[in-house]
Amino acid sequence: SDVVANFHDSNLTSQLRSLYYCVPPLKEGSDSMQRFLSEELSKFMKDVKHSSDESKKPSRYNFSALPDEIIMRILRNLDLKSLCRMSRVNKHFNNLAQDHLLYTSLNLKPYWHVIKKKALYYLAPRCKYLRRLDLSWCQGIDALADCKNLREVDFGWCGSTTGHGNSFRRLFSSCQHLEKVFLTSVRGLTERTLSLTAEICHAIFMNCPKLEMIDLSFCDNIADCSIQQWQQIYTHIAIKRVHCEW
Fold first, then answer.
1. Distance linking the first and last C-alpha atoms of the chain
2. What whole-number distance in Å separates Cα of residue 97 and Cα of residue 103?
3. Could you tell me if 49 and 43 are in contact, meaning their C-beta atoms sit under 8 angstroms apart?
């Protein structure tokens, strides 16, 4: 009996008793719910929507909140790999990363092991103002053969040029601003594909009035007498030639 008395007098019992008296009657609870549904629910939903919209607004510390001019200045300092990654962030960054002015100089040599024809066709639409192109060690020039603003091209140590005669012809015929051409050890480059009377050679020396230098080093299929003849005729062009010593 003492245990029962102590139980009734305990704090737990008093707390349970207070909770019991706080439970509203059934009708009062029903009226409260009706009032909430009719008066307060719509206001509650508006507050939730407003809070959601606020969370979607870009923070002042968000990179996307920067003006496009600032973002473009940052993009100009990125390498090709980083630019491609930026274009995959969202649609807005993709549009910015395709700006032609970001591709005035294109060095693909570091990516020679992964650069294929498909990758070049992917880049081609962005190269409207391309001025310097380095395709050293890469394969295929077809996709970029119509870049008309080139000043310098490097096809040194490229893969076989067999079958690319039309691409070379189109490239050197349309690039009237070319100043430097590097054809170091281009495989398949022979006197027949680059001779004084051939179309490709005619396009290089005649259609490129600003040409200052052409490098034919390690192109062992081209005879020394042809090089000497060109040097005598085109004295304003530095025609470089280095032989393989081994």
1. 113
2. 10
3. no
CA distance 110 to 106: 11
Tell me how far apart the alpha carbons of residues 51 and 216 are, in angstroms, rounded to a whole number.
Answer: 67
The domain defined by 103-240 folds into 3.80.10
Angle at 205 between CA 133 and CA 182, to 5 degrees: 30
The DSSP bridge pattern shows strands 105-107 and 152-154 to be unpaired
Domain ranges within the chain, ordered by starting residue = 64-101, 103-240
Q: Is the model's pTM score more than 0.70?
A: no
Q: Please report, in tens digits, the pLDDT of each residue of the chain (246 residues total).
A: 544 455 445 555 555 455 444 545 555 556 666 665 566 656 656 665 555 555 555 555 677 788 999 999 999 999 888 998 888 888 999 999 999 999 999 998 888 888 878 888 888 899 999 999 998 888 767 778 788 899 999 988 875 544 456 677 777 778 889 999 998 877 555 544 443 333 566 668 888 889 999 998 887 777 788 888 888 888 999 998 886 655
Q: Are 140 and 117 in contact (CB under 8 A)?
A: yes
- Give the Cα separation of 111 and 164 in Å (integer): 21
Q: Which of 133, 130, 123 is nearest to 153 (CA)?
A: 133
